[in-house]
Amino acid sequence: MVCSQPEPFDVFGVGLEEWKNKKVQASLEDSIRYFVEECENMQGFQVLMDGHDGFAGLSTAVLDHLADEYGSKSVLVYPLFPTPLPESGDAKKDFFRLFNYALSVAGSSDDHGHNAYVPLSTTSRLSRPKVYLDRLPYARFQQIPYHTSAILAGAVDSFSLVNRLSSPDFVHLRDVVDAITVHHRKVAAMSTMLPFPLRDSDSLFSALKAIDAEYLPVTSLTPHVKTPLIDSQNRCYSQVMSLRGVPRQRWQCTPEEIQSYRLSYEVASMPATQLFENFMSSYCPNTFGIGRVTEFPLHTAVPYPQFFSDNISENGYVIGSKTPRIDDVKRLPVMAGIHSTDKVKDLLTELTTVCQKQNLAKYPRLLDGGMEAEDYKESFERLVTLTERYGDEK
After folding, report:
1. Residue 284 to residues 193, 228, 277, 348, Cα–Cα distance (Å)
2. Strands 334-341, 236-244: pairing kind
3. Which of 81, 132, 141, 230 is deepest in the core (most CB within 10 A)?
4. DSSP 308
5. What is the DSSP string of 50-115?
6. Taking phi first (over 0 means left), then psi (-120 to 50 degrees means alpha), and beta for anything else, what does residue 323 get?
7. What is the distance between the terminal CA atoms of the chain, rounded to a whole angstrom?
8. Residues of the chain with pLDDT > 70: what percent?
9. Among candidate residues 204, 231, 201, 180, the one with its CA nearest the CA of residue 340
10. With left for phi above 0 and alpha for psi between -120 and 50, is residue 370 left, alpha or beta?
């Protein structure tokens, strides 16, 4: 058990205080050390943390520990914000969650450690009135943890293939973090296409061309942020993207496509990764980008929720008819990316504005755990400084 406190584990300061419990600290440090020692060639850490309650404070303390003990390793952090909860109509609890989340994101402004933060949620707007995702292009889901966690997990797992590949296309986690944190912009945004709309007869070239021609929607999984493939006015500084589940035999154009599109030999024989990176740069010209294509699909057999449209086949391909499937969808092609973009400023501004409007004296609970009003003030000043990095012209 992590939390030894008899009181609610609902504010950032209580989580920080929990780290001071020697038993808790020793248990977490031993667990981290055990898994580190099991690694033969550790790149770094991927951390998924609740950012809305006491675990925001505890996780921030753990991240400080990782920076102290494993400072040469990279850390990719995903602060999570929950779907609607039964008491989400309680204005006080809603504010506590938002306040905790702001503090967890503010931790990214500390240059202590080699890290990047990618806020994740199916909540498109955190403050009131809240806005929630209710659909993907080929899926209809409910705002319940069983569904929303599957979407976020599918996107994170798909993206992480970039640094989990064993082929020559492998990208080290340090290079991934470096790519999305240019000029100390340590907060980035995630997008996904789950599933990626691959028809049964498509090659990679025709599937990417269809996205460009049909404007198939890409879904942002970072609140308040429209990623580059959604908003053409988006200024993208850099991006790293992964496309999985495209069979290797489809990486090359068919003779019919070469003739139909009048493709040059150079385009027709282009490697899949280069073809994908060209697609990325068509949305973000003159932007540094890393793209990787793999044939390994996302496995979606039970217990993965079956919330897909009828025109998704058992193998995850888009089919023309909507004849009900006999079996569940067992695998999917998925596209996922992390983008450093100026639209991250919208999220940071929202967090800063909402929290600075409130008088902390009205919420003595926030000062539990040893945090003083000055500590909060310093955190929000760091958040303001971080926000300003997304408005310069570097």
Report:
1. 17, 7, 10, 22
2. antiparallel
3. 81
4. B
5. E-SSHHHHHHHHHHHHHHHHSTTSEEEEEEE-----TTTT-HHHHHHHHHHHHHHHHGGG--SSEE
6. beta
7. 46
8. 92
9. 180
10. left
Q: What share of the chain is helix, strand, coil (3-state, %, to 5)?
A: 40, 15, 40
Q: What separation in angstroms does the CA of 153 have from each of 157, 240, 301?
A: 6, 17, 14
Give CA–CA dist 253/201, Å, rounded.
11
Question: Over the stretch 161-192, which tens digit does the pLDDT of each residue have?
Answer: 999 988 788 999 999 999 999 988 999 999 99
Q: What is the DSSP letter of 365?
A: G
* Whole-number Å distance between alpha carbons of 231 and 226: 6
Provide Rg for the chain, Cα atoms. 22
Crossing angle, helix 54-69 and helix 22-38, to 10 degrees?
50
> Mapping DSSP to helix (H, G, I), strand (E, B) and coil, where does residue 226 land?
coil
**If pLDDT is split at 50, 70 and 90, which confidence band does 89 have?**
low
Range of weakest confidence among 20-34, 298-312, 323-337, 349-363: 349-363
* DSSP-assigned letter for residue 21: S
Q: Which residues of 36-51 are buried (b: 16+ CB within 10 A; e: fewer)?
A: eeeeeeebbbbbebbb
Print burial letters for 155-181: b (CB count within 10 Å at least 16), e (below 16): bbbbbbbbbbeeeebebebebbbebbb
Note whether 349 and 223 are within 8 A (CB). no
- Tell me which residue has tokens 């970039």: 162
What one-letter code names the amino acid at 374?
Answer: E
The secondary structure of residue 199, as a DSSP letter, is B
Q: Is 245 left (phi over 0), alpha (psi -120 to 50) or beta?
A: left
Query: What is the identity of the amino acid at 180?
Result: I
User: Is 394 a residue whose pLDDT tops 50?
Assistant: no
Task: Kindly report the backbone phi and psi dihedral angles of residue 239, in degrees, each rounded to the nearest multiple of 5, phi listed first.
Answer: -160, 155
- What is the arithmetic mean of pLDDT over 88-103? 84
Residue 311 neighbours by CB under 8 Å, 6+ apart: 138, 318, 319, 320, 321, 322
Q: How far apart are CA 161 and CA 246, in angstroms?
A: 13
Give the H or E element holding residue 332: strand 331-332
Where helices occur in the chain by DSSP H, the ranges are 12-19, 22-38, 54-69, 91-106, 145-164, 173-179, 204-214, 255-261, 265-268, 272-283, 344-357, 373-388
